[in-house]
Each structure stands twice: as C-alpha cells, then as structure tokens.
C-alpha cells in the first residue's frame, strides 16, 4: 500500500546522492590518503585523494570541451589504476555515464557493446591500443579516442584518427570545475553482463543506487572498509565496478592500491608486501595463482588480514588455506552484475562465537547473510516461497534499491517477477538468514527428476591434494536424463586416478550424487571474469559416452 504525501514532511537538506560527493568528501576529509598504482608502464605511481580530485575536475572540463553532455556514454578499456579512477569520477560526476568494458571479451563482443551503448568517447590503456585500432573502423559513433598514457608513450602514428593523449588533456584543462547537481536517479555507470548465452545486456546503475551500494557494502557486516585499511582491489574496475570499491574505499578514507595489469602471483605478492595491504577482493581463480606462488616459495603475508572472495564459490580448501596457512580472514560474498553487485556477505554473528572452529567454517563457507539494502527469498517452480531451513532449495529472488529493474534499452523485456529479480541461482537459506548457492539453475544436473548441485561436487574434488581445479557438468543419460561428469586439472607434478577420486567421495555425499566418470584436462575454459565456462565444457563433452554400470 502506498500512502499519499504526509501532511508533515521531514526538514532535512534534500541533497541528491551523487558519486561526485564521494571524491569531494575523500579529498576534503582524507586528502592525504594515498592512491598507489602499478602502471602499465611498469613503474609505481603514487598520489593522494586530493590530487585525484583535482585531476578528475580537469578531466571533467576536458570532457565538457569534447561536447560530452548529461547522459552521454563514455567508455573505458582499462586496468585498475589512478587514471581509471579519475575517469570514474570525472565522467559520472559531470553527469555523463561511465561504461566500463571488459577487455577480456571477444573483440566482436567489445565492438557490439560499444555500438550498443553508443559510446561517444573511449578512454583506454596502452595495452589495448592494437585492439582499439582494430575496432575503431566499426565503432562509428565514437567521436574521440583517448590513450591513457604520458606524451612520450604516444605512438608516432596510429590508425585511429585524431587519437588524443590523456595527459595532454589533463595538462591543458583547468581544475576550476564545480560538480553539477542533478537528479540522483540519473544514470551513473553502465556494465554489461558477460553474455554466456546470447548478446550481453547492460545494467545501468544510477547515482543513488551506486552511493547506497557504497554505504551498504562498506558496513562492518559486509566488506568492513575503514580508514585504517590499505585496500588492493584485484577484482577489475571493469567487473561490476570492482564490486563498488572505487566508491567504498574513498568514502572510508582508506589507502587504495591498484595492481594494474600484473595479476600474477609474484606481482601481487610483491605489491601486497610493499604497500602493506590489509584488505583485498577477488574471484577464486586469482587467489589460486597467489596461493600457489606463496606455497611454492614458502612465503607469508606481513600485513594482509582480510579478503572478500566472490564471483564463483570459494571452496573449503581455499578458505582453509587462506585462514589457516596465511592468517587471512575470508569473507565469502555473493552478488551479480544486476545487483551492483553485492547481495550477501559471510560474517559470523555473536551467537556463533562459542562454536567449534569447524562449525564456524561451515557457516563462513555459505555465500553469506543479506546486506541491508537487499532482500531475498527462495521459491519453487510455481513461485511459492520455500522455508528458511537450510535444506529446502529453490530459485533465488532478490529486490532492493541497487537491484536492476530493467536492462538498458529494455533489452529482453521485463526481467522482474512480481517486483522481484530472479537471479538464475538455486539456493538454500537457513534459519539465521545465511544463503548458500547450490548451483546456477543452468548448471544444475537434473538426474531422475532430482537436482544435483555441482558446487558441492567440485568443492570435494578440490579438497583432494592432487587436484588444482574441478568442474562438474551434466552429460545426457538415457535413463536418468543427466549424470555428472567430473573434469579435473591436476596439480603440477601430482597424480591421482579416476578410481582414487571416486573413492574420495565415499561418505561425503549421497550415493546417487557420485559422478559417473572423471576426465583429466590440462586447463578449464575461463571466461572474461575468471569463471569456468561450463557452457564451453558442455559443448566440448557433448558426445561423451558415460560408462554403463
Ligand atoms: P555473469 O553472470 O555474467 O557471469 P556476474 O559476475 O554477474 O556475471 O555473475 C553472477 C553470478 O556469479 C551469480 O548469479 C552466481 O551464479 C555466481 N556467483 C557469484 N558469487 C558467487 C559465490 N560466492 N558463490 C557461487 N556463485 C557465485
């Protein structure tokens, strides 16, 4: 029920929630806090929020000079770094819309989304010069290309007409710029889903949703970002706005450490140590690389204490290694592009404090508790809500002020079901409100009318010492519809047989969940955000014949 306007309205300042307010606040109240970036050029760049704010205003003037107006789209193809952060604030702060593009997408997909978004300006890192040169001819509506580098790194000639140098733009414009005020519901940033099936679709965040998400995600029950932290977002700024860290870190006044393009174990470890990083965030595959490097070289962290892991499930093996070997607290989080992205984060409640460690781990391994700003429920195939008992599983639906209401240009029609957004995930919720993802509904294995969740099967496989990565997929079966096939990547120099692996499942799962077969692969296909592409695996093993019992 919605009431008419109250006869007595509140009398607080009605200040729109705009992202420009975040960098303004950081520059004024945490002006000296540092932003450290490993540049594509290889060196380390260091400046402060005050400097960032100043250069963002110069860039805002430059964009104005290029004719970029309220609501126009400005794209970036860039790693995590200070120039990218300046663009975050200059573009959105001036009323235009920042479209962050995932450079790991197929070049045709990149051109598709640049055209779909009707980007007018494209800012890009040196790494992507060849890719941008190749696509500039088919991206007709892009009026200006800006290479984010120093003057001396500009190519002598380029196929891109009128290619501009970022540093020239900054140098030739004044920082005399006042952030404009406008409706907080205006579009702020645009992110495309990775489009594993069909074309990518755009999620268009508003200033209001972005600021609320920044507040909500910084809370102690969520990412707990404080001015005492040095935060290294490994998650890229092109992957759902680096999970909001480019906003929540400045509003908390924390030191920001950007890794640039160097995401291998050694480069990350060196930066964690050199900058005394305390907190980080990334998908499981990057932690895998870092952990392997550290184990091989018998290294420990001296300052790193807490990390968020999300994007795909964090296995018990990974959580145990980080917590027990390296003393890093793991916050398992879940979200999606359509949710800005944060939905849940896993931290314990007071009443869990006395539980034995293995019981606590079981709670922490779930995808977590809803963050205020997100409501969720699980429903059956008919849309009937299921109980929060930790075992009933169903389709997970969400709603809240930072959850999508429609895709950009209304692509795909109305995505909502009675005001709730269906996430495409299958989950349980326990009595304390902790949600656990069983699977994506398109990955779940349907065997004899029942569902087999692949995440559990994969988690067990990777807890075997000889297994580095595991993926489970459904293979067509004449009697049961589908049966699980386990695809394994072994640790270098280690061996394990099919029989040993299958025996390893004994006592850990219901008998009918046991994979019908195991195959060994050199690598798993990974998508642009570091997730295993199960659709590719299913395609690869389409003709696979399971052994008959
Ligand atoms: P895309 O869906 O395009 O790959 P997203 O980054 O939006 O890109 O992915 C969201 C999906 O990722 C969720 O719907 C869920 O299936 C999966 N996911 C995210 N975090 C987790 C997690 N902690 N555990 C398991 N799955 C997760």
TrEMBL record:
Segments forming domain AMP-dependent synthetase/ligase: 26-408
Family to which this protein belongs: Belongs to the ATP-dependent AMP-binding enzyme family.
Domain AMP-binding enzyme C-terminal, chain residue ranges per copy: 457-531
GO molecular function: ligase activity
Key words, A-Z: Fatty acid metabolism, Ligase, Lipid metabolism
GO process annotations (BP): fatty acid metabolic process
Protein name: Long-chain-fatty-acid--CoA ligase
Organism: Pseudoduganella aquatica
